[in-house]
Amino acid sequence: MDVFDEREDDAADTVFRDTIMLALAGFVTVVMIVLAHVRPEAQAATSKDAASMPGNVMIEAHWQGDLDADVDLWVQGPGDVPVGYSNKGGGLFNLLRDDLGKQMDLSEQNYEVSYSRGLLPGEYTVNLHLYRNRSSLQAIRVKVVTSVKKGQNKVSKQILVSDVAMNREGEERTVFRFRLDEEGRLIQDSVTTLFRPLRSGTKS
């Protein structure tokens, strides 16, 4: 009787071990299948897509990430209305990010960005407006970058960069006024900082 019970226990242990090993083998197989679908080249492609801009003209404004300052980006394309925080979309441009500084912001970056849907010849205007400055700095330095992408799969190219000091709340400054030709190329002698107000929403 004792011998029979011992053999029965051995058989139960064997079944238990086999079940555990099968479950472990199944888990390893599932992990290997999942890992096979997460390929490095797929990750690289995703990063590349994220780095390429979706529009044809991109205007970015960046300022120090730890500052509680609300700087507004305003842009106007040829024949379009001014686009900014109170009018986020026009016929050509859209404001994709309205940064309020530290207010309602979980990121460590301060930036605003506008994209165009198309590439039209004519004059473009880029303004900054210091809406609010709750930081300890008198002047908020803002880097403004303008890039152009021609064609569906072409890489974007920076055409204008400027570092601007915004000195007081309510101040509006024209960072760039420039013209693009029919091919989307910058007309070099067209670049100016001659002030054109955009916040009023009126076309000029």
Helix content percent band = 10-25%
Proportion of residues in extended strands: 25-35%
Helical region count?
2
Count structural domains: 2
> What is the ordering of alpha helices and beta strands?
HHEEEEEEEE
Structural class comes to alpha+beta
pLDDT < 50 stretches: 39-51
Q: Give the spatial strand order of the biggest sheet.
A: 3-4-1-6-7
N→C terminal distance? 104 Å
CA-based shape: elongated
Number of strands: 8
What does this structure look like?
- It is a single chain.
- With 204 residues, the protein is α+β, with helices and mostly antiparallel strands.
- The strands form 2 sheets. A 5-stranded antiparallel beta sheet has the order 3-4-1-6-7, with no helix packed on it. Strands 2-5-8 form a 3-stranded antiparallel beta sheet, with no helix packed on it.
- A hairpin with an 8-residue loop joins β6 (140-148) and β7.
- The chain is 24% helix and 33% strand.
- The protein has helices spanning 2-37, 40-51; strands at residues 57-63, 69-76, 93-97, 110-116, 122-133, 140-148, 157-166, 172-180.
- It folds into 2 domains: 2-38; 54-190.
